[in-house]
Amino acid sequence: MAENKLEITVGAAVVALAVGFVIYAAQATGLGGGAGSGSYPLTASFRSAEGVSVGTDVRMSGVKIGTVSSVDLNRDTLRADAVVTIRDGVEIPDDSIAAISSEGLLGGNFVEILPGGSPFPLEADNSFGETQGALDLLTLLSRFVGGGQ
């Protein structure tokens, strides 16, 4: 009987731990219950969205202001269309640039918003007029080593 109680206790602890991981993962990736409320979507079309996926950070001035909620190939333009979700209260000037930046040589990529000077903000479901895609570090290094060819 004591052995059954131990197995039940260990089993309950494992289930509780698994539920905790699921909740943490949902909140960390923006899929949690309240993630959609208090935010608005914007679209950015990139030549290359290398290293960007659902859940990637969106930052302005080094501060996380949102996440990437979808990335898909636009079959008409053959560009990567990303929908970013920006938290309410953050106004982005309508002449801002969405760029894919790297955290360093070994770090991951994130979407960086380079704010413009316009007094008019982007509204929900608007698109960025200008974007900069991901840089291929291997190509840059090979050009540097190869003398710019």
Describe this structure in words.
This protein has 149 residues and is an alpha/beta fold. It folds into two domains: 1-35; 39-135. Helices cover 24% and strands 32% of the residues. The protein has helices at 2-28, 137-145; strands at residues 39-46, 57-60, 63-74, 79-87, 97-102, 109-114, 130-132. The longest helix is centred in the first third of the chain and has 27 residues, at 2-28. It starts with a helix and ends with a helix. The mean pLDDT is 86.
Global structural class = alpha/beta
Number of strands: 7
The averaged pLDDT comes out at 86
Tell me, what's the shape? extended
Question: Strand-and-helix sequence, N→C?
Answer: HEEEEEEEH
The percentage helix is 10-25%
Rg, nearest Å:
21 Å
Strand order of the largest sheet: 1-4-3-2-6-5-7
Q: Which short descriptors sum up this protein?
A:
149 residues, seven-stranded mixed sheet, 2 domains, 2 helices, extended, alpha/beta, 24% helix, single chain, 7 strands
